[in-house]
Amino acid sequence: LSWGLRLVRILRSPEDSNIVCELSHTTLVACRRKFAAFSYVWDDPNFTQPITINDVSFEVTTNLYTALRRLRSENEPRVLWVDAICIDQSNLEERGVQVFRMWAV
């Protein structure tokens, strides 16, 4: 499986600090790091919270923000595949391909 994918790494940080992440590109073949994958129930897009990805502010829905706060660790970075972050939601073709790949893996 050499499909391209993006992974988000939540950097370690204290519970009360901002959520800071790094987004990287890899393939399933090249990916040697373990990662958790999750999708979530879409929330009202009018209620968002900012996180930082690769030094750029990125708005996520409130429920995703809450999930990321609970998943991050004070001790070590956490690697995730999160559909709302790792798939370009404005690109219909990419969304279709990635959703198909989720069923194949």
Number of helices: 3
Approximate strand percentage? 25-35%
The SSE order reads EEEEEHEHH
Q: Major sheet: size, sense and barrel closure?
A: 6 strands, mixed
Give average pLDDT, whole number: 82
Give the domain tally: 1
Helix content estimate:
25-40%
| Uncertain spans | none
Strand order of the largest sheet: 3-6-1-2-4-5
Rg is 14 Å
User: What is the end-to-end distance?
Assistant: 9 Å
Shape: globular
Structural class computed from helices and strand pairing: alpha/beta
β-strand number: 6
InterPro entries: HET, HetReg/Transcr_Mod
Protein name: Heterokaryon incompatibility protein-domain-containing protein
What does this protein structure show overall?
This protein is of the alpha/beta class and 105 residues long. The chain has one domain. Strand 4 and strand 5 form a beta hairpin. Strands 3-6-1-2-4-5 form a six-stranded mixed sheet.
Q: What's the SSE blueprint?
A:
Elements: E1 4-10, E2 20-27, E3 36-38, E4 48-53, E5 56-61, H1 62-71, E6 78-82, H2 83-86, H3 92-104
Parallel strand pairs: 2-4, 3-6
Antiparallel strand pairs: 1-2, 1-6, 4-5
Brief summary of the model shown:
With 105 residues, this protein is an alpha/beta fold. It has helices spanning 62-71, 83-86, 92-104, and strands at residues 4-10, 20-27, 36-38, 48-53, 56-61, 78-82.
